[in-house]
Amino acid sequence: MHFGSRFRGAALAMATMSAATLLMTACQPGSDAADSTATPVGGGATKPAASSSASPKPTTPSGGTGASAKPAGDSTPKAPASTPAATATPAATTKTCAAESLKAFMYQAAVRPPGTGTGAAIVEFTNMSGASCALQGYPTVAGAANGSPEKNRPLTVTRTGPSSKVVLAPAAKAWVKLTFVQVQGEADGYCVSGSDPVSYPTLVVGLPGSGANQLALEDGVLAECDNKVTVTAVTATKPS
């Protein structure tokens, strides 16, 4: 009986020590039990939320998977459209020849009305610039009395033939033909209309958009009747 009493006493003591150990373990800070079940009364410190500085996971756009999907708003530069190779400038966009880019001179035409006056003259234009330029249209013509442009006397112009743009490469030429009312007879001659013949030392010949040139005949003196002239448009074919 004494052994049974001792055994029961020892067992009770061991049970008491186990209970105390469990109680102390439950009260340790940071234990799983305290984190999951213990909420301080009165709103004490709670478990902190996950840090906001963590890098967010990338969102995969709809229709794509993982890294192979192209994110919206992709800023990858697009390849530029191909640039056409340089080509000859078309006539429609070639600039009109400037007055200073043209060299002009005037000579008597081979084919002219019968008579003793000038009859007809050719004005030749040469592109002296280093780039192509264009001429188009009919010339204006005025006689320069005493060779002075400020004393110009415009001639009445009759246009003949079609007009088209003529593109002149550097050093290329274009022409217009002027046909006058011919002086008749000998010496000072006469005009069929009854007016007096007129002689001009120079003519002022203008082209649309290209200014005017004051020109003397290379061979002879300009004499005409009635201050009238028939003109062709600028042409790339040399007239006779």
Bin the strand percentage: 25-35%
Largest sheet: 6 strands, mixed
Mean pLDDT: 74
Shape, principal axes of CA atoms: elongated
Kindly provide the name of the CATH class of one domain. Answer: Mainly Beta
What helical percentage do the residues reach?
A: 10-25%
Counting DSSP H or I runs of 4 or more residues, the number of helices is 2
The class by helix and strand makeup works out as: alpha+beta
Low-confidence stretches: 1-89
Q: What name is given to the CATH topology of one domain?
A: Immunoglobulin-like
By CATH, the architecture of one domain is named Sandwich
Q: Would you write up a description of this structure?
A:
Residues 97-234 form the DUF4232 domain. Residues 29-92 are annotated as: Disordered. This is DUF4232 domain-containing protein. Keywords: Signal. The protein has 240 residues and is α+β, with helices and mostly antiparallel strands. It has a domain at 93-232: Immunoglobulin-like. It has two helices and twelve strands, in the order H-H-E-E-E-E-E-E-E-E-E-E-E-E. The strands form three sheets. Strands 1, 2, 6, 8, 9 and 12 form a six-stranded mixed sheet that branches. The chain is elongated and about 50 Å long. The N and C termini lie far apart (160 Å). Mean pLDDT is 74; it is low at 1-89.
